[in-house]
Amino acid sequence: MLIIGVSGGTGCGKTTVVDQLVADLPKEAVSVLSQDFYYKDLGHMSREERSRVNFDHPDSIDFDLMLSQIKELQAGKGIDCPCYSFVEETRLAETLRIEPKAILIVEGILVFHPPALRDLFNLKLFIEADTDERLLRRMRRDLSERGHDLDKSIQRYREVVKPMYDAFVAPTRSCADFIVPNYDHKPANTRWLSRMLQSEIQQHGVS
Ligand SMILES: Nc1ncnc2c1ncn2[C@@H]1O[C@H](COP(=O)(O)OP(=O)(O)O)[C@@H](O)[C@H]1O
Ligand SMILES: Nc1ccn([C@@H]2O[C@H](COP(=O)(O)O)[C@@H](O)[C@H]2O)c(=O)n1
């Protein structure tokens, strides 16, 4: 199994780039894991308490579970991974079945932070967009999809998102094999990677 890590700051376009790659590859050959699936279960907290959690700090993610599930996939076993609601800000009761395939893409702002996870990747991509553009994309998404209001979104960005990006995300840029630009209305070029992965699949099969 080839494991590809995709990281970069919030709003840089990780999901967009991963979707592009998945669309270019046979669906039986690729599965995707998002770091977001592994936000810790905060079901024991009130909505008010959850809204004060720092969701950009590595401690907010259950990296132990994430690592053990990736290792299960590597061992050829399917996993039931947790599902997360951004609106409820906690884990949902349902799980998502993911089967092992030839290529596993793992994406998230902090996936290059824990050395044990970083070292599992055969290829590391860091997606890059201007900071102001990332902020604008994020605000639009927070308001339209994640149930945040404007004040909450601005406050979180100032107090948590930006300082945590500087402390935990930006320093991992240098460990990436490739920096992939994804500027405003200039979609990232991922054709080179799709071609490389297609030839890998042809040589080694889909599972
Ligand atoms: N090159 C681009 N130009 C304009 N908007 C983009 C571009 N890439 C992504 N977006 C938009 O920005 C938002 C955040 O992108 P997304 O892929 O979800 O980022 P991430 O997963 O890194 O947080 C989405 O609404 C997406 O459609
Ligand atoms: N309840 C939550 C949990 C996380 N976030 C934000 O999501 C960002 C990471 O996801 P991306 O798709 O943007 O990479 C992270 O910056 C958290 O602040 C949230 O808003 N609410």
Summarize the structure.
With 207 residues, the protein is an alpha/beta fold. The chain contains seven helices and seven strands, in the order E-H-E-H-H-E-E-E-H-E-H-H-E-H.
CATH domain class name: Alpha Beta
The ligands found in this model are: adenosine-5'-diphosphate, the ligand Nc1ccn([C@@H]2O[C@H](COP(=O)(O)O)[C@@H](O)[C@H]2O)c(=O)n1
The beta-strand count equals 7
Helicity level? 25-40%
Radius of gyration: 17 Å
Q: Mean pLDDT across all residues, rounded?
A: 95
What is the chain-wise order of helices and strands? EHEHHEEEHEHHEH
Number of domains: 1
Percentage of β-strand residues: 15-25%
- Largest sheet properties: 5 strands, parallel
CATH fourth-tier homologous superfamily: P-loop containing nucleotide triphosphate hydrolases
Number of helices: 7
The name CATH uses for the topology is Rossmann fold
**Overall body shape:** globular
Structure class: alpha/beta
GO molecular function, one term: uridine kinase activity
EC number: 2.7.1.48
Family: Belongs to the uridine kinase family.
Catalytic activity: uridine + ATP = UMP + ADP + H(+); cytidine + ATP = CMP + ADP + H(+)
How would you describe the overall organization of this protein?
The protein is α/β, with parallel strands linked by helices and 207 residues long. The protein has seven helices and seven strands; from the N terminus they run βαβααβββαβααβα. The chain has one domain (2-204): P-loop containing nucleotide triphosphate hydrolases (Rossmann fold, 3-Layer(aba) Sandwich). A hairpin with a 4-residue loop joins strand 3 and strand 4. The protein is globular, with a radius of gyration of 17 Å. It starts with a strand and ends with a helix. The mean pLDDT is 95. The structure holds adenosine-5'-diphosphate and the ligand Nc1ccn([C@@H]2O[C@H](COP(=O)(O)O)[C@@H](O)[C@H]2O)c(=O)n1. Residues 8, 10-16, 137, 141, 182, 184-187 line the site of adenosine-5'-diphosphate. Its main location: cytoplasm. Residues 3-183 form the Phosphoribulokinase/uridine kinase domain.
